[in-house]
Each structure stands twice: as C-alpha cells, then as structure tokens.
Amino acid sequence: MSFEQAREYLARVLPWPQEGDAPAFVNIHWTFPVADRTAPAWAGRAARNLNEAVKAVEYAMSKPDTLAIYACMSTARNATERSGKNNYVWYSPIRNRENAATTKSLFLDLDFKDYAEPADAVTALGNYLHTSGMPKPSLIVSTGGGMHVYWTLDRALTVHEWEPIARALAESTKQLGLKCDTQCTVDFVRVLRIPNTVNKKTSTPRPVSLTNAKTEYDYSVEHIAKILEPYKVAAPQDAYAVDVALFPPKAPVQVGEIALGIEDRKAPPADVDALATECPFIADALNSGGVNFTNPLWNLTTLISVFCEDGRTQAHRMASQHPGYSQATTDELFDRKAKERERGIGWPSCATISGAGAVHCSQCQHFQKGRSPLNFAPRPQPSAPAQPTQLLPGQVTSHAASQPTVAQPGNDVPQGYVRQPDGVIARLVVDPTTGLTEQIPLCKYPMQLPFVQDSPWVLHFTSVLDNNRAKRISLPFDAMSTEDGLTKQLWNQGIPIRKSESKNAKEFMSSWIETLQKQKGYVINSVPFGWNVHNGQLEGFCFGGHVWSPNGGRPAVAPDLVIGQQYEPTGTREPWIAAAKLITDQDRPALDAILASAFAAPLVRFTGHPGLQMSCYSLESGIGKTTALKVAQAVWGDPVRAMQGLSDTQNSVLHKIGEIRSLPLYWDELKTEDDTKRFVNLTFQLSLGKEKSRMTSGVTQRSVGTWQTILVSASNESLLDYVTSNTKMTTAGLYRVFEYEVPPAQTQQGQIAMADAQLMIAELHDNYGVIGLEYAKFLGANHARIKEELTNAAKAITDEVTAQKDERFWVTIVTCVLMGAAYANEQGFTNINLPGLKAFLLDTLAKMRGERNSQPVDMKQDINVSNVMTQFFNQMRARHTLFTNVIHLNRGKPLPGSVSLVNSLNDHGKLDALYVHVGVDSKMVRFSSTAFTNWLNENGYARHVFTQAIEKQFCARYTRGRLGGGTRFSTATEYLYEIDLNIAPLLDFIDEA
User: Fold this and answer.
1) pLDDT digits (tens, 9 = 90+) for 943-987
2) Cα torsion at 559, 560, 562, 563 (round to 10°)?
3) Which residues pair with 150 in a beta bridge?
4) What gap in Å lies between CA 583 and CA 578, rounded to an integer?
5) Rounded Cα gap, residues 318 and 376, in angstroms
6) How many H-runs (helices) and E-runs (strands) does the chain carry?
7) 4-231 falls under which CATH superfamily?
8) Residue 812 to residue 833: CA distance in whole angstroms
9) Less Cβ crowding at N or C end of the chain, within 10 Å?
C-alpha cells in the first residue's frame, strides 16, 4: 500500500526541523481496543524526520487491531527513548503542552453529525469562507465522519504566537455560525487523523483521505492574523492561576480547564433552572433542547447535569432537540459522565465551554472570572445552628450575624480577634448590656497568609487592593514601634487606615507577631532573590515573593522596598515575547547574547564563579544594543528603574548586586572616559562575589551581600584598555571581562527600527518580570538537571577550544550564555539561533586571546617587561642618564682615564640628577632603586611584581654601589639594579641610540 497521501499531509501540516534547528519530534499516535474498557488504549512513535513518520504510519496500519491513526499537530521537544527486541531503539511520544515546541497549521474539525447531510457541512464551510474572508484551505481531509480543514503557514509558531490566532479562528466560527469543534481549534497538541489510514469508529471501516480541494502554497502568518483580527478575543484567565499561592481554595483544585470545580464535589447539587439565570449557555440549552449545539457542547451540558438535582432528567432536557439525540445515547453519555465525576473530574470551566463553540460566553458577565458556570449557581444556604447559651473558645456572635464562627485548628489569629469570611480581621468586643460579642473590623482590607521573616524581622501578609488585586504587604518591626510608623507603612503600601483605626491596628499587629512566633511554620528564612540554600542543601530559586522548588512554592522574605518595587512581576508576558522576537528575528548574535544573558545569570551558581562581566560596545549609535539591554532587563525587572546608570554610586550598585544575587545587572550609557574609569573599578569587586564590609550607624558590622551573577555593560568604546591600565602588571583584569563589538546590521531590514524600538520599550515599562517569574519556577523545579547539564556543557566547551586555566572566566561566560539561550528557547520565551550564537561566542573568545597577547600587561612575557623598562630609560635619558665607555664595578677608584664619557649619545651638560648609568662598550646598565621605585609608583606599576620580573627574566642584580664612578658625576653609595645587556637583548637600546 502506498502512503503518498500520508507523506504529503505530514510534510505540509507539520514544522519539520531544518539543519541547525533544535531537535524536535513528530508524534504519531494510534488507538487499539482493550478488553473491559469503554475507551481504547493508546500507542505511538515519535519520529525525528518525515521518513520515520511515514514508517510509523505504515507500522500502525499493519496492526489489525488498530482503530485509528493520528498525528499531533505540534512537534515535541523531547521523547522517551525505548528499546525492544534485538536492541531495537525507538522513541515514545510525550504529548503535552509543556513539551510542545512549534506548529505551522490552523485547523477546524467539522462533524457530519452536526448537519442534516454531509453536503450541508460543505456548504456551511463555503459560506463561512466567503463571509469571514478566510482563504481557500491548504488541505481538507475527509475523515469518514467529517472534515478536517487546514490552513498551513509559512513559518513555525510557538504556542504563545499561535494561540491568539487560533482563538480568533474559533471565535470567527462561533460568530458566523459554522458548527465545528472549536475546542479542537485552540488545542496546540491536538491529534488529528492521517490520510491513507482507516476510521474504524463505526462498524463499517471508512477510509481517511485527502480531498482534491487543496492549495500548493502556505499562507503568511501575518495575512491570516490580519483577516482574523476582528475576531480576536482575550483568553480567559484561570481564577486560581495567580492567586492560588496567595488565597488557596478550601479544598484542592485539579489543574485543567475541564476540572475547575473539583474542589466543590461535596457542594449541594445545583438547581439547573436557577443556574440558567446566571449562565446564558445553560438557558439556551434548556430553551432549545440543544438543537444547534455541536457534539462537544452536548457532552458539556451532560457533564453539567451530573452536578445538578435530578441530573439525568436535566441531561435529557438540554439535549432533546439535538439532531443526534436518543434516550439510549443520552443515558449512556450521562452514565459515562457520572463515572468521570466519581473518578475526580470537576466542573467544566467557562473557558472550556467557550472553546467548544458556545457563542454566549464572550458577552457573559462571569466569563472573565475564569470559573465554571456551576460556581455561580444559586444554592440554598445551610440553616444556622442554634445559638449556644455560653460562648465556647473560638466562637463569637455578632449583631450582624447570629451564627457562631469557629476558629480552625492552628489559626494564626491571636486571642480576642477573628478573621471574617472575607478575610477582614475583627476585634471581639463584648457588649456589657446584652452580653453578646460584637465583631469590630480593624479596617476594610483583608489580612491573610501571614508569616514572619527574620534577619531582618518583618511581618508579611497578603491583602486585596484595587480591582481585586492580591498584594504582599511587608511591615518591618522597627517601623511598627509607633502608631505613626505603622500608619505610614500601611499607607505607603496601599492600605489607607484611618487615624481612629491606628491604635487598634498597632495592638493587633503586636499580638499577631507574638502568636506567629510561637507557632511552627510561620517564621521563615530565605533570600529575597536568587538561589536559596536550606540546611546546607540547595532548595530552589527565589523570585516573585516565593521560593520555587521541585516541591512547588513557599513564601520568601521580602527584599529591600525600593529594589523590590523594581523587580515585582507586573503586567503580562505578551509584550516581552513580542519585544524579544523583534530582536531574535534579526539573527544578530551580538544582540542575542545580550538577550540570553538574562537567562544565563542564574546559571553562574553552578560554575563556582562569583561574578562575571560581559561588555559590548559600538562606535556608532543606534546599533540596537540599548534596546536589547532593556529587553533583557525586563525579563526580571523594570527596564528603566532597574537599569544602572551614570549617577549610581559604586556602593549603591554593590549593595544592589548583593540583594538581587543571582539576577543579572545591566549598565548602559558608558560614554565618557571618566564614566568608563569609574565603571572599571567594579570589575574586580564583582569577581570577589561580595560587598565591602561596612559599619552600621550603631557601630556594628552590617550584613555583607554576596552574589553569583553576570554584569552586562554597553558603551561607546572598548573597556579593555581601561581595565589593563588599572592592572598593568597582570592579565587578571583582562581575563575577567568578556568583550565584543556589536556590528551594524548587514541590511536595513536587520536594524531595529527606531519607532518600533520606542513602542516596544514603552510597552515593557508596564510589563516586566513575568517571564522571570516563569523562568524562576523552571529553575527551582529543575536545579539538579540544570547543574548536571551546565557541568557537561562547560567541559565540552573547554575541550572544544582547548581552554587554559586562565581562560576559565571566558569559558564560563560562553557556557552560561549558550545554556541560558537554550533554556529560554525550551520554555518558549525566545527563538534564538543557537548554532549562530555559539559560533559568535567562540569567535569572540578567539579574539579575546588575540587581545590578551597584544596587551602589555603580562609580566611573564619578556617583551612586556622590556617595554616598561624602555619607557623608564627613555624618560630618564635627557637629564638623568650618563653614557660612558665602561662602568667601574670594582671597589676603590678606577684608574685615571679608564672611564670616559660617550658624548655622542647624550649632552651630559644638561644632566640634572643621575639615576641611570650605561656602559656602552661593556654593555652594562645600572640604575637607582629609589628612582626606579618612584617611577613605577607614579605610573601605576607594582614594584614588587616588576622587580621580580626583571630579576627573573633579565637576571637583574640588586646591589650597592655608585653611579658615574670615575667621572665628575659620581654619586654617593646607594642601592642599585644592575643588568648585563649581553643577556637581555630586548633592552639593547645602545645600538639603536
């Protein structure tokens, strides 16, 4: 059997990796029946290329029990390696959103059951194409029971690029009345049937094949997106996605759109008619009997019915007019959904219902809450228990509500207070006239999830401020010592308490702290940013107010208030993704390296180095380095406030690095020579990994910040000359900086447009830190894997470039930047050209080696030592050097006439003071130790290092004697250096003179 249609289909709808791309797999799946199960089991193969995919289809077709064969619409980053008989190795698919890489198709799934005749489905598709303006489909696959309609795209898209377009496509079908499974359309990892296979869903097998209605080209992503722009909708946000760490639900929440309501399985059954007053989808189902609903919507009304009173009856009410309705099929579906509920499936979310094709959701008042319709169903409240005659511990009554509120075990609220259902803390006050206890709220803001941090002592709790936004409130102990101090702190953080409330608030805070300190688990210790070590073991990564580890997240201590505001995740991820794409689309590795440094800095922890510095410069302005720097900064913090600049003092910067620890630091706008010189002073402090020790105002040692990170700078000229001028005797400074020039774009299209860059940065002012939060969770959950991979990568780079020990800083920078880029790509944040970036970084390393050899700072090299000596002799020549035929080296006076001046080499009449004496014929030179030491100090050379160099390399002898012996210029006895020029040819400046 020929599988040409399968080959053509797979080649068109999937993004096959090209040479140089990151590895990716195409997942081929098939189903087969399993005894005593209502649903079939799955098997599959992960293919690395088109030939392997076709062979997987052929293999599945050869199995007589195979019911259906599918391809996953997105490639996968990873697959599990398996081995069979005779050591046969194959790859098993991993099909989930986290492992998905890219796709290059948009698709619709039309079921003929939703139409009176198959021809009606074809007509409906034609009407939709005409009305929507969508072009002719690239491919249409006849599935035997419906149609799969594809628009193939001209480039591969990540899930974050693809989803907005797919949601717009789904919304367009809903608005224009095309019946299809829109939940399929927005599923990035959906599996769809492959042509040249068989559909055995019914008793009579039906072939799956390509129709003749197809195009020979792919569509531009921008073209399709423009057509669907009128239908673009905001994706509903899961209510628990952000707040679960701050306000956990009363019972566990099952993750996933279809199961938002699992926490409420014990809730009383809903009244479906009452539910219809809140949910227009349910109201339509009851009024129309589901006559216009697709099969997925029929499934969802049946699922909802199992959570309602007299559910089976309600299932029939909401499906009775559906074209495929029968009592038997509805009962069977209801029984299946009831079993799913028993296994733990929860309430279907509004997002799931909308995705399945419901047109009612976009205008519903509840849709953006990200919940389920069943969350809003009115239910009878349980009757209040009888009022006790005597208050029990933890029980209170109120004039507003007579039923008691029972404190839960381990309650953090101190005695005499209660937390009301809305989270507001109330003081318990007994009315002396009635004997009843009244609840007096401290203020209108809730106070939940408290904990205390030590070193320094700070009270933290979570409140809800404007627009139901949860926020961490942090109150230093010393600021709460007075009512005014507490009031000011609360006002500064968004809680404007009244003056009349401040006294009670201070009393409560004091009692609250005492209660928390006595209870286990309420006092925590961590760092505010970066890697956290607990009991000598690496626990996880701190960012966004939490320590993220393989076990999830727990609260972290608060940072410095000002720094914390600069690095608080704000806004959404999309503006950063768009900004990063603007950079990576240029394929300029010099800018990609800056972007990757944001993800590389946390990896320094696993290299053993404390601090690394990467410098980029360009003589021209408008090259794009500042834009790239700001986008990189926005991974973690505000691209304006968190960026370092000219006015920042060195102590301020070092304190900040000590606070952010593992996050990168960016420094832009090094323009003048003075700016650069001040900045270079940081280079050596950075490599120490800690701040300077300083005293507090109380004359005690202040806590010293430490770090393991990367400092990235951008300037208009190279830093290397300034670094080497500060370290004239050693290459240590040179090795600590990894520098490259940012070249202009090769074409005008490769340059970041000024207007685009300005708009992009403006968006990032209000959207930053969100990508850093996602990356922090990845780092914390995978630190063991990352450590191993980084170690292996460093070894591989070291071997590839045959690195020397002194080059360890450069190798570490290259490794961290490459691995940071790889992880950013893996998480779907970027699409950096990894082979191109690696080639650029290794080329830069080679250039750094050349720069090292050209800098006269390595005192191990004779040429560099002789260069310095030549500078000294040249400066001494005119007024401080005596040239004679020989130098008298023996004791006593020389014989008369044995020492004579060589006037042809110098005008000895201009001698001021004698520091150097040269014997021309004997090729000997002597010079004053004192004068030489003073000259070295004045010119920034270390005397000890340099004198060791001339003694070792030029056999210089330290001795006592006279300069100018046997002449009228003879000096008193002093300490001298003596060099025989016969064994130091590099210093033979006599012949040249």
Assistant:
1) 777 888 888 878 889 999 999 999 999 999 999 999 988 877 666
2) -50
3) 107, 139
4) 9
5) 19
6) 32, 31
7) RepB DNA-primase, N-terminal domain (3.30.70.1790)
8) 20
9) N
Other Cβ atoms less than 10 A from the Cβ of 870: the count is 14
Dist. CA 497–CA 483, nearest whole Å: 11
Neighbours of 137 (CB within 10 A): 23
> Distance between CA atoms of 633 and 624, rounded to whole angstroms?
14
As a residue count, the chain comes to: 993
Q: Which two tokens stand for residue 985?
A: 């040819």
Cα separation, 2 vs 252, whole angstroms = 51
Q: What is the DSSP letter of 644?
A: B
Instruction: Answer whether the bond into residue 248 is a cis peptide, omega within 30°.
Output: no
Q: Give the pLDDT mean for 456-483.
A: 80
How far apart are the C-alpha atoms of 359 and 779, rounded to whole Å? 40
The amino acid sitting at 518 is K
Q: How many CB atoms lie within 10 A of CB 519?
A: 12
Quick one: 980 exposed, middle or buried, by C-beta within 10 A (0-12, 13-18, 19+)? middle
CB atoms within 10 A of CB 534: 13
Q: Which residue has the tokens 């803001």?
A: 445
Strand duo 437-441 + 425-430: pairing: antiparallel
Distance (Å, whole) CA 199 – CA 66: 9
Residue 541 sits at φ, ψ, to 5 deg, of: -115, 135
Token pair listed for 194: 């492959």
Name the more confident of 164 and 946. Answer: 164
DSSP of 172-231:
HHHHHT----HHHHT-TT-EEEPTTEEE-SSSS-EEEEE-S---SSPBPHHHHHHHHGGG
Q: What is the DSSP string of 410-445?
A: T--SPTTEEE-TTS-EEEEEE-TTT--EEEEES-SS
SS3 per residue for 543-581: ECCEEEECCEEEECCCCCHHHHHHCCCECCCHHHHHHHH
Angle at 764 between CA 762 and CA 769, to 5 degrees: 160
Going by their DSSP bridges, the two strands 146-157 and 103-111 should be labelled as antiparallel
Task: Please give the average per-residue pLDDT across 697-703, as a whole number.
Answer: 42
Nearest alpha-carbon partner for 565 in 495, 471, 632 = 471
Tell me the average pLDDT of the chain: 80
Q: 814-817: list long-range contacts, CB under 8 Å, 24+ apart.
A: 814/738, 814/841, 814/842, 814/845, 815/607, 815/790, 816/600, 816/601, 816/603, 816/604, 816/607, 816/612, 816/710, 816/790, 817/593, 817/596, 817/597, 817/600, 817/614, 817/841
Residue 919 dihedral angles phi and psi, to the nearest 5° = -95, 110
Q: Work out the pLDDT band at 749, boundaries 50, 70, 90.
A: low
Q: Structure pTM?
A: 0.46
Confidence class of residue 141 from pLDDT cuts 50, 70 and 90? very high
Instruction: Tell me if 965 sits within 8 A of 899, measured CB to CB.
Output: yes
CB 830 within 8 A of CB 580: yes
At residue 859 the predicted structure's pLDDT band, cuts being 50, 70 and 90, is: low
Beta bridge partners of 103: 157
- What would the two tokens of residue 414 be? 């101190």
Q: What's the pLDDT tens digit per position in 580-613?
A: 998 998 899 999 999 999 999 999 999 888 878 8
**Could you tell me if 163 and 100 are in contact, meaning their C-beta atoms sit under 8 angstroms apart?**
no
Give the residue-averaged pLDDT of 170-199: 90
Nearest CA to 761 out of 630, 605, 600, 912 is that of 630
Residue 757's alpha-carbon distances to 396, 629, 772, 799, 969, in angstroms, are 60, 12, 21, 39, 71
State both tokens at 886.
């020989």
End-to-end CA distance of the chain: 92
Highest mean pLDDT among 331-340, 723-732, 869-878: 869-878
Kindly tell me the sign of the dihedral angle through the C-alpha atoms of 712, 714, 718, 722: negative
